[in-house]
UniProtKB/TrEMBL annotation, chain A:
Keyword Cell membrane carried by entry: no
SUPFAM superfamilies referenced in this protein's UniProt entry, alphabetically: Ribosomal protein S2
Name of the featured protein: Small ribosomal subunit protein uS2m
Nucleus is among the record's keywords: no
Organism of derivation: Meleagris gallopavo
Gene designation per UniProt: MRPS2
Lineage of the organism: Eukaryota, Metazoa, Chordata, Craniata, Vertebrata
């Protein structure tokens, strides 16, 4: 029934934090995972300056209060995309963590691309893969630079194809074209494990919520069906 | 009021004096007495609620008390790290900074340096960066620099040896 489906899709949009992603992380968790550590002052990108708390002995420190807000927005967005059965693609060209990213994607039932990005993967998809191909609905960058410290090509391509992006931006990255940037460390193993864990938990939570609401609505419509049928009196059966 | 039981004696005494003084004055001062005790109660509440709890520490406070900031410049500081990866003679050691450091396996006790062993390091730099001629930004090696001093001698090894 179209009415129930409509309610299924519009109800989560009424709440600012429908999936309660705030409780998944705290300031202390981010701090212990070394998310606030940035690169040296000389590596700083001009557009990252608003997200930087300060510079200590030449090392930039990222402002975790801003990171908390950005992380909450990004996780909320990924939860909504996963709830609406969107395809999520994890992208990271950092070879130290490519296995971690791939296993995270496998565990939450989504996709990952941690190898060389061919030029026309998104922009030339219909010719490279065939007609009727479905492109990802969200790209998550766990490291927005490629192996030569340039912005990953997929950021620009996703912007061209109107695909929203979520990305962890370190102090040497360009946050411009990313829809939901998360200023934070992308080089320490502890911080990468934290991000992977958070994304995996939000996606699984959103998918479970969707299943739960669908089952609930099915039960409700079944009950309506049962009550509408005439009830036989005991004597007549 | 349970708050008064924790107060030191001189504060209780001054409060009583204020109450007794106000009673002898005109009935209009009843309001003043009430506001005085309310103000005192508020002040007492503020004073006794400031118990340092882990949850409400701000980022700036956490940063200030963190070992990285307290350490100061990294040059020639002694730190303890843990080996998390071994490639033949190269040991990848994580000491709590943004990057790990890579050290050569020493000749003394070479076999004892395995994954998970704790080692003592003398830090030289937290991140190896340098600006080359004609570049707009620094080039970073994504590694820290440290000198390996030796294994961490725990009490057990001392007793055995």
């Amino acid at each position: 029934p179209p009415d129930l489906e409509d309610k299924l899709l519009t109800e989560p949009l009424r709440h600012p934090d429908f999936f309660n992603v705030k409780e998944l992380f705290s300031l202390k968790d981010l701090f212990d995972a070394r998310v606030h550590l940035g690169h040296k002052k000389g590596c700083r990108h001009q557009f990252m300056e608003p997200y930087i708390f300060g510079c200590r002995l030449d090392q930039d420190i990222i402002d975790l209060d801003q990171t908390m807000q950005h992380l909450q927005l990004a996780l909320n967005f990924t939860a909504h995309v996963a709830y609406r059965k969107g395809i999520i693609l994890f992208v990271s060209r950092n070879r130290q963590f490519c296995h971690l990213v791939e296993s995270t994607a496998r565990e939450c039932g989504e996709y990952a691309h941690t190898r060389y990005w061919q030029g026309g993967l998104l922009t030339n998809a219909h010719i490279q893969f065939g007609p009727g191909i479905r492109l990802p609905d969200l790209l998550i960058f766990l490291s927005s630079l490629n192996n030569v410290f340039e912005p990953h090509v997929a950021i620009r391509d996703a912007a061209k194809m109107n695909i929203p992006t979520v990305g962890v931006v370190d102090t040497n990255c360009n946050p411009c074209l990313i829809t939901y940037p998360i200023p934070g460390n992308d080089d320490s193993p502890t911080s990468m494990e934290l991000y992977c864990k958070l994304f995996k938990m939000t996606i699984i939570r959103a998918k479970n919520k969707r299943k739960q609401i669908e089952v609930f609505q099915d039960l409700q419509s079944q009950e309506k069906h049962d009550t509408s049928r005439p009830v036989l009196a005991e004597g007549q059966a | 009021m349970t708050v008064t039981s924790h107060l030191p004696k001189y504060m209780l005494f001054s409060n009583c004096r204020r109450i007794s003084e106000s009673r002898f004055q005109s009935p209009g001062s009843q309001q003043r007495f009430q506001t005085a005790s309310e103000g005192f109660a508020q002040a007492a509440r503020k004073c006794y609620r400031e118990v340092p709890s882990e949850k409400s520490e701000s980022f700036a406070a956490m940063l200030r008390h963190s070992p990285l900031i307290q350490m100061g410049p990294a040059k020639d500081k002694i730190a303890i790290g843990q080996i998390f990866h071994v490639v033949e003679d190269d040991l990848y050691i994580d000491f709590g900074g943004k990057f790990h450091c890579v050290c050569k396996r020493p000749e003394v006790d070479g076999n004892k340096y395995q994954r998970g062993s704790r080692v003592r390091l003398r830090l030289l730099d937290l991140e190896l960066t340098s600006r080359f001629l004609g570049a707009t930004t620094d080039t970073t090696l994504l590694e820290a620099d440290a000198v390996l001093l030796g294994l961490v001698e725990s009490k057990q090894t001392k007793q055995k040896g």
